[in-house]
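re the bet — no i am not wrong, look at it urself. input seq straight from the record:
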Amino acid sequence: MRLTALAFILVLLAQPCSARTSLYLIALMGQSNMKGAGELSELPAGFPASPTKLWNFTNSYKWEPAREPVDSPLGQVDVVSLDERAGVGPSLALADAFVSAHPSASVGLIPCAKGGSNISEWQKTQTAQPRSTLFGSCINRMKTVSPANGTIKAAIFWQGGADTKRQDDALKWKDRFTAFVTDLRTDLGNPNLPIILVILGTPDKKALKKDPYWQIVREQQHAVNIPGVIKIEADGYERKEDGIHFTTKGQLAFGAALAGLLPAP
C-alpha cells in the first residue's frame, strides 16, 4: 500500500504545470483547529475521494497533491507560521466535499494558519519584512499562486481562542477582525472576497477556567456584520478531551459543512 501511494504521488508530481492552473483557490487562516490537531491514524480508508483534483500550496512554497497534514511544517519557508505538530484539519475534507459537489473543479489549498495566534497577530503592519508577520506571509502566498495558478475564491478564518484569556483582547476582537477583512480585500484587490468566519464553539467548564473571556469573543464574532462575510458555528462536532480541539472525525464533518458555504466555481 505504501509503495502504491508513493507511486501515485510521484505520477501526480510529474504532471505538467498546466495541471495546476485554473484552480479554485482557498486561503486557510486562523489558529490551532485550522492548522489541525486530529490524528492521522484515524483517517478513514478511501479519503480523500477525489485525490487527483486536490492540490496544496505547502509551507515549502511548492504545489503538491493535497494530503494530511495540509499544514505540514516540512520545508517551512515563512517561519512565522511554523507549527511543529500539524494534524488533521478541516481543509482537505472541505476541498474533497467541494469537488464532489462540483466535479469540474480542482481545488488549490493555501494553508497559513498558526496555532495559538492572537487576532492582533493577523493585523497588517508596516514593516520592511512583511513575510515576518502572519498577515504578510499569507498575503504573499496568495499573490504567489494567484493569478498564476487560479483565482482566490474564498478565505476561511478560524480563530479566537487565543483572545479569550484577556478581557481587553476579547472586547477588541470585532474591531480587529473588521480591520483584517478590509486590509485583506484591499491587498488582494477584491473588495467582495468571500470570507467564512468560524464562530468559536461553546467551551466546556475546563476550558473556561483557563480562558474566562470565551463568551465575550463569541459575542464579538456573532456581532460581525460585514457584507460577504459568512458565519458558521463550530458547535456540534466531536472534540478531544480538552474540549477545544476537534478530533479527526469532527474535522472531517466540519470540513464538509464548510464546503457548502463556498461560492460555486
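see?? The first strand starts at residue 23 and ends at 30. told u. also Residues 1-18 have pLDDT under 50 and may be disordered. so pay up
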